[in-house]
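Lab notebook: predicted structure, single chain.

Context: the supervisor wants predicted structures on file for every construct in the current expression panel, including those that have not yet been purified. This is the next one on the list. No modifications to the sequence; it matches the entry in the shared construct table.
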Amino acid sequence: MITCRKGIPNQKGESRTSAFKGGFGNGLREPAVLLYSEGRYSDFMSNTLNTETKIVILLDGFAKKEAQNALSAYADDGGDASAVTVAPITDIVARQITHEAVKAVAEGIWPGGTPRSGGKRSALIAGADKRQAVNLMRSFKAILPPDADAAFAMVTETGAAWSVDAYIRHIRKEHDFMKTAGAASDPDMKEIQ
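Prediction complete. Output recorded below exactly as produced.
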């Protein structure tokens, strides 16, 4: 996991004193990021994320350095990177129910494993309001190559009950559809400044 908070114990009881330690294996590409929205699902999220960390991002296909650079860009843009914890999706995490995976990461528990690699970059964001989620997404996109084609989603109450893998496949399918469907004419796709 990557966190900007200091002094929070990890699953071994060790205090994290560096902004970016552990969780990303050997620099392999990680899985998608998962975001939960505090807006419409505030009650659901407050029951799921009842720790000091407000935002959890599960990454699929991202490299550790990309996550670090994106969090730095988010902080440079005025975001509170200390409230964000980023974790890679491993085969173990992929099999977990999304809300359980997010809660475990928020509590500093990461099941380990090797980050998945080879797929397209995706991210699930939990615990962020819409503006935070958009700013995080923009921060990640800003550090990626133009052809990265990353997909991002805020975790919804429905999606939180799915396995992380199923959720990632779903958002990737939606992302691919929206690239060809003309999202600008879709009334559900509102512009965020």
